Amino acid sequence: MTLLSALRVRASQGTQYIADVRRARPKGFVGLPIIAAGSCGACGACKDACPTTAIRTDDDDVISLDLGRCTFCTACVDACPSNKIAFTAEPKMAGVRREDLVVRAGAAQAQIKASSTFSSIFGRSLKMRQVSAGGCNACELELNATANVNFDVQRFGIEWVASPRHADALVVTGPLTRNMKDAVRLAWDAMPDPRFVVAVGACAISGGLYEGAAGVDRAFFDTVGPALYVPGCPPHPLTFVNAILDLLAVR
Amino acid sequence: MSSVVVHQQPLALVPTLGPAAWRADIVAHLGAGKRIHTLYARRGSGQQVLLTAVLEDDGGSSRFRRTQLGPHDVYHELSSQFPALHCFEREIHEQTGLPMPGHPWLKPLRYEGQDQSAMNRHSFYKIEGRELHEVAVGPIHAGVIEPGSFRFMCLGEEVHHLEIQLGYQHRGVEQRLCQIDPRRAGPLVETVAGDTSVAWAWAWAAAVEALGGCTLPIDVEVARAVALELERVAMHLAGLAGLAADIGFLQGASSYGRLRTTAINTSMRLCGSRFGRGAVRVGGIGMQLPADLLADVVANIALLRTDLAIINEHFLTAHTVVHRLQGAGVLSTAQARELGVVGMAARSAGVAIDGRQGRDQGAWHVLPLAASTLVGGDCWDRARLRILEMEASLAWSHDALQLHPRWGSARQTVGPLQPQTLVTAVVEGWRGEVVHCLETGAGGELVHCKVQDPSLRNWMGLAIALRGNEISDFPICNKSFDLSYCGNDL
Predict the structure, then answer these.
(1) pLDDT tens-digit profile of A128-153?
(2) Is B231 a domain residue?
(3) Does residue A150 belong to the interface with chain B, where contact is any CB pair within 8 Å?
(4) Using one digit for the tens of pLDDT, what is the confidence trace for A52-111?
(5) Considering its fold, how many domains does chain B have in total?
(6) What domains lie within chain A, and their CATH numbers?
(7) Selected residue of A52, A137, A139 to mutate for chain B interface (largest B Cβ count, 10 A)
(8) CB nearest to B272's CB, from A29, A52, A143
(9) Residue B410: exposure state from Cβ atoms within 10 A (0-12, 13-18, ≥19)
(10) ipTM of the modeled complex
(11) What value, to the nearest 5°, has the Cα angle with vertex A21 and ends A15 and A23?
(12) Over the Cα atoms of chain B, what is R_g?
């Protein structure tokens, strides 16, 4: 009985893993935005609609969108009278420098340059410790999903670990709350060198919707800067997996 | 045409009683076995503290009761008589500083606005004894999960007391909500608890739409309900996958896990987000349902129903599952009532409260939903209830899409908000009722936002259910309640 039902489950399960996570495009996903070239004049409708001041205009009234602040709510798309902003299904949009997260009108986003240092040290084995510091459980669930049967990040030698003592990377979500300040520092101090920090989601990267909020204290990032920024609200598992693989020059 | 509980009243008409009469009214209400949605307070002008109770009446309607305490009035605590109020009174004390002489336990809920060292100044409850030992866990846990501190008082393997200290995720949601345009607060509201984005966005939208005098057509109400049920299915699947993993039942972990992917990818097809972000917007929805997508959504729901039946049968008949879950973490019906536990935790302990039942208008009125209640109150019944609720939600969603296959995506403009008005909106999210209470000032601006996740009330249910269990059963008890840290901490 149990054996038969186990076999039925196995048959219904089929093959679930995404064979090529490097090329997968999640259908319907609101991902990397593109902005049409040219000046917008004094319009500013998109800036007014944005909940996180992710959109800026330069001296020539050309707009840019900071993925490190964007919640991908698409309010700017609805507000724009001339359809200049569009969100594609592209999940790859991470960066190693904060400024690489800014998408400019008429320009392609800067790609992650693989690091030979990271690649030689962590390229065949990367252990990550996740700490949520004010995260809303959306980023946390998506990071968990990277290890499920669909995304299966373990196939690349990348794993989540329970102890910071076993970790190479501290993966931070949430805007960094004052009440988690000590715990984040303790986790970081417990990690052996070489080690680095990954900021996941708009909250961790910029404070996002909680920038300047009453319970937020981002002092940790003043002393330890992230080596990798993974934008989203929350980021798709493919955004995270591709960011790590790009940094480590895996395939 | 609101599907969810919305109650709105101009402040001038809200009954404001003297402190003694107000207290007597609440005691009579709770003494008669009725429920309270929330109890909260804010500092008024000067030294006044303004207390608001939202009481549930028969037929799912609700009413407000207010009182105002001056600096010389004494607040007589209610938690000793009604333990369900402990979280409300602790929050009031923390947020307003209102003294509560005689209150049994005024430990702060979330250490708002304090230096972190304040957390260490409050000790955990101790049991003395040479054979007893304490186990401290947290705030950072072993998995990819939010932080919280658990302190177990154990005699051998047996847990005699568990104290749960939270607050680590406190960001300042309520203050922030008062600072922004309520019509555009959707992205922020969706992060109160990101795994409950749809329920939170809907409750917010319903409250703001009521203040703006806006009613929505039935197809929009149904569309919101479909998004809400997809969220419920997805999170029940996540919970069951976690529960299966915690007992080493790996086929359950991988099967429920991949079915969750199907559920959240269906949400993504509808609104672009796997968490239903943007599905509900103030004044309407952010989802579209063209014919080809409708076919895909219907097919996904059919796949979920077919494959769920296969894994459910395997899960529920496996000896290892039955043996580990039955009898673990029992919350009795009496305890659930006394603690004011809500949502699925209440329904699996014989307390039949569900904001989607008995509605006289809206989505669950035009298409009633099969009710699910179990009485065991253990991990087994919490798992079984989630399975029953998924089956009901998927069947309902299938029928709803037959009934309303076209969703109007035009959003209504919400006009100026009614000034000096109190409104509450309650939505039955996957954990239980999510509650917004908004109060507007003379210009229609928000002067107070009360945000209440079901977890606020249910954490104590977990603590009590664990008593007498082995500490090794804590992970499955915790997972079976599946409560929110950020929703509690705000």
Answers:
(1) 999 999 999 999 999 999 999 999 99
(2) yes
(3) yes
(4) 999 999 888 899 999 999 999 999 999 999 999 999 999 999 999 999 999 998 888 888
(5) 2
(6) 33-91+99-104 (3.30.70.3270), 116-248 (3.40.50.12280)
(7) A137
(8) A29
(9) exposed
(10) 0.94
(11) 120
(12) 22
